[in-house]
Amino acid sequence: MDVLSLSNSNDLEKYLIGAYKNDVISCKDVLKCALECAYEGGKLIKASINQREHKDNNPIAEDSSYDKPATIFHQIKSSDVDLVTETDIAVEKLIKLKIFSQFPNHLFIGEEGDIKSIDTIDRKNKFVWIVDPIDGTTNFIHSFPIVAISIGVAYEDENIFGLVYNPMNDELWFAWKNSGAFMKKVDGTIIPIKTSLCNSVNSALISTGFGMYLLRSNNMYAKQEINELLQLIEYNTRQLMLNSRDIRRIGSAACDLCYVAMGRTDSYYEFGIREWDIAAGLVILHEAGGSSSTVGGIESYSLKGRNILVACNITLRLQLNQLLIDTDINRIIDAIENK
Ligand code: IPD
Ligand code: CA
Question: What is the residue with the minimal CA distance to atom 8 of ligand 1?
Fold first, then answer.
């Protein structure tokens, strides 16, 4: 297998055989641009964590500021557990500039920017880059080494490309629609990936983000719906605790999806997720053989989030659709976010 051949742009063609084609886009140029964005953004993330750890571990070093907090300065967004740092903003800015310098006619959705969604009608004949500069901001703030830069591309409403990069351990996953999914491992080897063969809930390792951000909303007018959400989450957690092999809370939805794609876990579900958390990971998951739907079982290749269940294959997903519930979740989310 190849070692570090992603740094040589002539080698990229071999990961694009059969890739979804469109006359106006070069698959190789998109992959190359996404790789550059991921590696350059990754340097900022690593530098921030390294600098912090250096200070924390060397309290008497001359250049240290011992009075600095152990965790990085952050601000809160939709709830007191939904966080953003200067690094999230800097990485998104860098990625956006790079994309627009190469693809000035494309559209851009980013978690930390002004445009957080684009209607189907405005996507007509357009490519849309969907970016989360740090997926796993809470992990990042705590120097917990599972964070990802997530870069997806959609044509109109269809997700066609995804790349997810964890700069903390240098793991990278990518896929073009119809080309299969690949992973660059920590040692630089690039391998095709496939989901696990698990076909029974009781041998499945399942990750989730529960629905933490929604649950911790401060919207005092939606107390009843927050309580309904808690009941849904409690019910589903109990079902998994009683029936699955075990549960994981990884802290990065993009990694949750890639872990299922490579067979590290067998399934993932969450309420309240957003398009930038999953656009890239869903392409990787599907190209690796995985299956996706809402928790209740509604299927769509291009889910835009809010309510997602994925599994290594359709057999396991259908079992989980039976076991878990999402009763009234659209009404509940709408109330929590807009009431
Ligand atoms: C979050 C992470 C987390 C998931 C949240 C996401 P962020 O993204 O993916 O695992 O549970 O729903 O919002 O805020 O760290 O980019
Ligand atoms: Ca983020």
Answer: 135
